[in-house]
Design a protein that fits this description.
This protein is an alpha+beta fold. The protein contains nine helices and 16 strands. The strands form five sheets. An eight-stranded antiparallel β-sheet has the order 2-1-4-5-8-9-3-10, sandwiched between helices. It has a two-stranded antiparallel sheet with strand order 6-7. It has a two-stranded antiparallel sheet with strand order 11-12.
Length: 318
């Protein structure tokens, strides 16, 4: 795995300006940059927070599949568009867009990482060209510090993305794609569907939520993939027409995948617990992967609308 091209475009608070670099960084003189980018790239490809993207017909990325393109021109155009949006919604802070070409054995990927930092430059190289010399020391090399990123496989057209709620829509608009939810987001959507149908039926939301989560854990342990619709069918074996329409529309609108890779589910340690929060600030955390919930937990709703939580057969209090 090797980085062959790199350029960094920036917004810097000390210069109070946007700097669109005119030249690539010389990797022979910045050997540490190769490791910096590869660490972020490997993290992006392995992270449970990374999603896949489906390109729309008009996506600008379509024309780059299997073709040579002007790396500097494309990165500059994307950076300018991103900074135009960024300036319009946020105060000036130090923000760097790191664009690179990453070569693996049989693939080449065009990547971008949005890296927030302290003041981003050592010095201005040429005031007329508005070019700069970067200091890697001010940039975090942790993927957790990267709020937005993408890696586009120029051979296959596969797109991997990382974004948050604030950047998702604009990144989708800029590149022309729709996000396929990752395992964490997919299960959150499934949880929301269980909540909605339970409330519509006036059934116990907690019971159905725990049943759904335990079924997901068991399925992930036994099979290579988890099928969200099968989970719903087991929790609600008799969906009526309106409920089925709601489920189908949710799948379509959220791009919820029909299958979720079990290995991705198993990596989500938070899914193996369920936390109950009360209005009085009491929290009860229940392990879902090692206990029969009915044997240790009972929830009673009283006539006055209050709720009693009864813990049973829990051994000693430590």
């Amino acid at each position: 795995m090797q980085v062959t091209k790199v350029v960094v475009h920036s917004v810097d608070n000390s210069l109070a300006t946007v700097v669109l670099s005119k030249r690539q960084i010389n990797l022979n003189q910045n050997a540490e940059l190769d490791g910096f980018i590869l660490k972020l790239y490997k993290g992006l490809m392995k992270s449970s927070g990374t999603s896949s993207g489906v390109l729309e017909e008009e996506s600008l990325l379509n024309e780059y599949i299997g073709e040579e393109f002007n790396f500097m021109a494309v990165s500059t155009t994307l950076a300018q568009a991103w900074f135009d949006h960024y300036e319009a919604t946020t105060k000036h802070t130090a923000l760097n867009l790191v664009f690179a070409m990453v070569h693996e054995e049989e693939t080449v990927s065009f990547v971008m990482f949005e890296v927030a930092s302290r003041s981003g430059f050592v010095r201005i190289l040429d005031e007329d060209d508005n070019d700069i010399e970067h200091s890697l020391g001010i940039m975090s090399d942790s993927l957790a510090s990267v709020k937005t990123a993408f890696a586009f496989d120029l051979n296959t057209g596969d797109l991997k993305v990382k974004h948050n709620n604030n950047t998702q829509l604009y990144l989708e608009e800029l590149l022309g794609f729709k996000t396929i939810p990752n395992a964490k987001k997919s299960l959150e959507i499934l949880d929301a569907m269980v909540d909605y149908v339970s409330e519509k039926r006036q059934e116990n939301v907690l019971d159905n939520t725990i049943k759904s989560k335990q079924m997901i854990i068991e399925t992930a342990e036994l099979f290579e993939e988890v099928e969200p619709k099968r989970i719903l069918d087991n929790v609600f074996p008799d969906l009526d027409e309106d409920e089925q329409t709601f489920v189908n529309e949710t799948f379509e609108e959220t791009f919820l995948p029909p299958l979720i890779v079990s290995a991705d589910v198993s990596r989500l340690s938070a899914r193996k617990k369920h936390k109950i929060n009360t209005e009085l600030g009491i929290e009860v955390t229940i392990p879902l992967d090692s206990l029969i919930i009915e044997d240790i937990l009972e929830v009673k709703e009283n006539l006055d609308g209050s709720v009693d939580i009864i813990l049973k057969n829990i051994g000693g209090i430590v």
